[in-house]
Write a structure and sequence with these properties.
The complex is a heterodimer. Chain A is of the alpha+beta class. Helix content of chain A is 61%, strand content 11%. In chain A, the strands form 3 sheets. Chain A has a 5-stranded mixed β-sheet with strand order 6-8-9-11-10. A 4-stranded antiparallel β-sheet of chain A has the order 2-1-4-3, with helices on one face. In chain A, strands 5-7 form a two-stranded antiparallel ribbon. The chains are: A alpha+beta, B alpha/beta. The A-B interface holds A 445-447, 449-450, 452-454, 456-458, 460-461, 483, 487, 491, 494, 505, 511-513, 515-516, 518-523, 525-526, 537, 540-541, 548, 550-551, 553-554 and B 13, 15-16, 19, 22-23, 57, 83-85, 87, 104-106, 108, 178-180, 193, 195-196, 198-204, 221-227.
Amino acid sequence: MEEKETLYEEAVDAGSSVNKKPKSTLGGSAFVKFLVFILLIVTVVTGSASFVASFYAADKDMYTTSYHDLLCRELGEDADMIMDVVSSFLNRGEYDSAVAYLRTINAEVAILAEEDKYVPNDSRFLWQSYDKTAPTGFYSTIYIDRVALWVHDPAMPMSGYKLARVFFDPEFVQNDSTREHIYYFRLLYEYRYVSLAVLAVSIVLFLFSFIFLLRSAGHRNGRAGIVPSLVTGLPFDVVTCGLIVGWIACIAVIDELDHMLYGVAEMALIIAALLGFGILSMLYLMDLAIRIKLGKWWRNTLIYKFCKWLSDRTKAIIGSAAEMAKNLPDLLIVIGLLAIVALVELFCIMAIESGMEFMYAFWMVVKLVELLEVMYLVRLWSRLKKGAKELASGNENYRIDTNGMYLDIKAHAQHLNSIGAGITKAVEARMKSERMKTELITNVSHDIKTPLTSIINYADLINQEPTDNPKITEYAEVLERQSKRMKKLLEDLLEASKATTGTLEIEKVPCEVDVLLVQAVGEYQQRMEEKGLDLHVNGLTESVKVLGDGRRLWRIFDNLLNNIYKYAQENSRVYLNLEKKDGQVFITFRNMSKYMLETSAEELAERFARGDKSRHEEGNGLGLSIAKNLTELQNGTFDIVLDGDLFKVVVSFPVLNE
Amino acid sequence: MHDLYNILICDDEKDIVNALKIYLNDSNYKLYTAYNGLQAVELVRNEDIHLVLMDIMMPEMDGIEAMVKIREISNVPVILLTAKSEDSDKILGLTVGADDYITKPFNPIEVSARVKSQLRRYMLLGSGIMQDGVLKCGAIELDDRQKKVTVDGEEISLTPTEYDILKLLMQNQGQVFSPKQIYVKIWNDQPYGSENTVAVHIRHLREKVEINPAEPRYLKVVWGQGYKMEKGR
């Protein structure tokens, strides 16, 4: 069946998509459907008839007992009836009338002298209705023993309870009610197996036509898809109710008729009514099949429409209530909610007071709901808190998951998220502009370098020219000095712009800070001594490794030592200290400043911070800025401490543990 | 000495070419000039050029492309001059076959020193026969029998400690020595905090053997690790 169905549907699909006109099928033909419907009705009739027959046959043990035994059992009732008539004749002493009666039916009666013995032609028969000369054995074929009634005739030797025996003519020659009875009984017996076969065939054919009709319902040749029936437009529950009411009425009428004698007209009426409602029911089932095939059959029901209307209404009411609540101040909402909870609890208390103990359970449920809601709110709140914390700590890419949030909490989360998005956008724009700035600085620097080369070289050439005019020598020297300063400025500018935007490539390898410090000191020792600066290095007792780019680390130390070389008070001491503490290595540079330090530590580390406040001949103020940026690029910290004339820089890096 | 070296100066900036011509005004040099890569390649092809000093950013054909073309026809030493100072630019220049690299704005003395150094290596030392007891690294030669050190053939004077350090590094070219290791080997003692003595000596040594001590060619500082002699090319 399943396989057939798939084939069928494929045929429909292929037809509708390729040929436009659907392929004709048996199920689509109205005539075939009509024939099958007739077949269905016929199978119902034959099926019920054969079922009744088979049931009756089975009830009479026709499938298990021999015909003779059945016949004997069947004739019992007839025997009783006959005995009633015969005994009434005998009691009145009308023996001849009894014999005359017995002559007209297929039975004879004998009353036995002894209660339980029978001997044919026995003289001890008290009374017998038939001719003794008749051939023996004729009446011996079928007989039923019955207790005869009490006979009051004192002339007869058979007063008291006696055994009577009713003999039946196996040919049933006389036309009486027994003959008719046995005729139908014999007929039923002979067709007992045929009726079973008819029942089986009827069931099979019924099922076939039933399924065929349900499957073909809605299919019509020449029409694609499912065609609704006439009643499909009506609400399904209305149709169902109509049918059920009809059935109830029908059964009630039959029940009513039951109290009267069943006449032919009544029987015809009942059969017609049953048949009619059977046909209606089948059409109803076919309509249901069409509805199911069309899909969403429950939509065309009054119940569904009512529920939908109800839910739409409810939603609208809740929506407008929420809208109203939105416009209320938060405080009022909270007070309102608390008031509702308080009222519910008050109701509970009052109910319990008046003896309704079970309200304790209701109160507990209310509390449980409250607890769950509070827990949920706390969860949402912690999500908000985490999001705000991430934003505050600079993780602008963090977004709060607004799933399951509602009302103000959701709005709040969305606001926080848009702050994050705004920051991300701003940071990106900032990074882009920084990169462009770096590129601009790099390109401009390269372009400036070429003319600067000529300036430096020709200033040098002027310097080398022998001249008597001392002013020319002086001016040329200024030119040379300033052009060299410009060169240094350009180089620092390039490096500073790269270091701040992080476009600098940094290859981190394990580096020994103590070795680096020794190397840096070695580079500067002689120059410092020339200025009378006394370099003191402490803390070089153990090897300290950090992860960093050796050349960039050197650049940091180089810039700091250069700073000291330029700005430290001549003939003073300079202290360099290396210290390992809490997984960090601290390198401290301390010296006395030659000039008064008028700026703050923060300003010193900023690019071009020196501004107009303390402009000196040498340097350009970028050294500290570059050192700070390079330190931070390598996960280090860079702090400047100013204390009077004491200038201190503390650089620290995380120690690399091996 | 060779009687005359042919040097090709190539830059699109005429003022720079002129200035270089003045700085390289030497009786030993015959100077050729070109103003773009194409002219430079033509001159190398037609003349017996001994050294090329060339800018990278030039019209018509840039220095890198010219460099590749020159290497197809000649083994002449080439010094690249450029305003670009990024590491990647230097690496690119040296990869395509340049022998040295000078960034603008340059120091005239450094330029002439590098020219001289490249010429000596190319003309004189390129085929020099290695004698016993002579250590060589690029332009630096250390004659252990005579306790004599020459750079580009010119003798330099070193203190005994400097000489010992240089010898140690030249004997182990390419190997990095920490200041402590050097101290132990040279002074035969533990440093106890006097490693910076080694650093000071190395600085002096670099000032003597290198043209630009801040950008050493041979005696390199491996920051945070130690010092090494670049493996001789």
